[in-house]
Design a protein that fits this description.
Shape: extended
Number of helices: 2
Helix content: 55-70%
Structural class: mainly alpha
Largest sheet: none
Strand content: under 5%
Number of domains: 1
Oligomer: single chain
Distance between the termini: 38 Å
Order of helices and strands: HH
């Protein structure tokens, strides 16, 4: 039971780490975000995540 739980957590974690790594490769997540508008950084990250997810979908399925 515990081993199965750990496998599921690990599978989810790998997917999240790959997404973050992909966004870093495209400089969506930068060390310092210079825009000072409140809530804007959250929108930029959400858009970046959406673009990364779109990048992960094979073109044949779109």
């Amino acid at each position: 039971e515990e081993q199965r739980y750990n496998q599921e957590v690990s599978k989810t974690r790998v997917g999240i780490e790959n997404a973050i790594g992909g966004m870093k490769r495209y400089n969506i997540l930068v060390p310092r975000f210079r825009n000072r508008l409140e809530g804007f950084a959250d929108s930029v990250i959400a858009i970046g995540a959406g673009l990364w997810n779109l990048n992960c979908i094979p073109l044949a399925t779109l």
